Amino acid sequence: MLQIRDKKEDVYRKHKTAFAWRILYFSVCFFFLFTVEANAYIDPSVMTYAIQAIAGIAIALGTFFNIYWRRLWKRIGWNGLFSTKYEKTESDELYFDDPVSRQRIQPEYKPGNDVQVQKEKEPFLRKLWNEYKYALILAACGSFLIMIFSPLDLYFNNMKDFWFDFGIVFPILFKSFIKCFLTLSALFLVCLLLFDELYHVVYIGAFAAFVCAYIQGNFLAGKLPSLDGSAIDWSLYHIQMLQSRYLWSLLPLAVLLIARFVRMKGFYKITKYVNLLITAMLAVSLLTVGIRNKGFSDKNYRIATSDHLFEMSEKQNFIILMVDALDARIFGQIMQENPEYAEYFEDFTFFPDTVGAYTFTSYAMPQVLTGEWMENQTDYQTYFSEAMDNSPLFADLKEKDYRMGMYETNLYYDSDNIYQFENIHDAEVDFKSRDEFMETEKELFIFKYAPYQLKRDHVPDMLTFYRTQQINGDMDIFSDNNENFYNKIHSEPIVMTQDKCFKFIHIEGAHVPFRYNKDVERIDTEDGSYEQNVLCSITIMNAYLSALKEAGAYDNTAIIIMGDHGFNYDNDEYWGRWNPALLVKGIDEHHEYTESLAPLSFDDLQEAYRRLEEGQPAEACFDAEEGDMRERRYMHFIREAKITEYIQTGYAADEETLVPTGRVFERAVDYLAEFHIN
Asked: 397 CB contacts (<8 Å, ≥6 apart)?
């Protein structure tokens, strides 16, 4: 009878293994074929909620059937559905001849029956291993989520925002994964050696935390606060806090009830498959997005230095000073309230009725320099490089023998043509502080995966990623920091050269965080405001223009001062950024500070550049005149995977006349979180 029972158990184990492989195969194919994007601007959600929900249901049902399929199929009578057939025979049950009735009967097994087979006592080490192996699986899965998936999820979808590549960062993450795994494994082992009950409590709690973190970071991360440096008003996230509270209280209770119902032996089996299948799903999705986004390739490390920043031509110069997030409405109000600032911008014409291109810098900047629109027709890196290679501005400047400088901290230009800018150099880079990098990654994990009640104490500083960069060699790296640029203006004199010069300079400007007063002094962000950052930007602009005048490099210079986008006022949808400031001065142009209500667009800039190089004054650079009725294009997005086209039919700042065209540009495949940090 024991041999028969052992044979049945062997068949049962084969069925379990086959079914587990079916579930794993389904999960892998599911993610390769049906992944959909859900990207965000510091709004770290991951795969589409519907996809996650379906996958989660599949996991739950798969786990349940994997454990209880034999019992169900036995009752239904559908054993023939499986390829590994099991035919029930009389010997499958325990029968014996009754000595009185002389009939074959099946006894009812109850605790204490004499006919029950007594099992041998399990050796201590085997018993220890049979429980501890499940803890090792849980420790490995949890460590993978924390140290591998979360950081690479961030990197693969935001490669343009990080200076490092996979080859540099993965060894650090893998080392941290090993440390985390060993730490969790040791904790489980100590608990198991001390008390079985303690081990059970810790294991149940750890599994519940793993599942809660998975759900929190995947299903409840769509409305996370922005990490762009602005102050977070946590009162706006009341609903999310309630959802998080219910999740982290009810789900552990449900897990505890399941453990009570199926006993620990059954609970171990359930958790093993749930852990492995969740991890397999995340691993496959991570691998897929890494391949599709070319995340495993090495980066070409080209650094924008400050070389030649203050070299100007005695003949002719052309400067584009991009002041981040400089909004036309607020700039105009400040100029009206402070008439003395008109002296700062004498000879300039301010065009307040200007419609920008995109919501964020990464897309607005290449459009300003090239005139090319990003419509999700390709990946960002390809778009940026091809647009820059085909820029009519740079082609014209090269033809006219201009020396060109690109003073920009975020270079996504993956082409050898980048060396046409004299301040760009190859560099060897590494982490200055790997511990600081991992601390920031841990803060990001907590911010995304922990309950909302813990998030407010773990808001990561995204600029840490830049501070951890170490450049090998003696190079003066350009920084867009307001304070840094302002100090350079006062410490480094402008020198003159015979060659014509073009310079594109992008500075922090009015962008969050609001950490400057009007004198370009650091203040507490709680005391700062957008208006103070604009005043700070005006002080920097005045200092730069004054330096040009003192060096005799002002009159022969065409200058454009502009915002890359406006500022989103009182909303969290980045709405209200379509009206950036635009000020223009031509070569040898002299007059009082002037405002023109000509309706302009960033689409007008390429022609304006050409006319400025020819020496035309500001208003002559544009065909549009005050009173003209124009339709001007603007592309708004919160998540880069979905860009919506609008047409401004009235005044640039008027929200009521900004209407959608119905055209939406979506990426074909993209399904993990995007974090923009500029």
From this structure: 318, 404, 502, 613
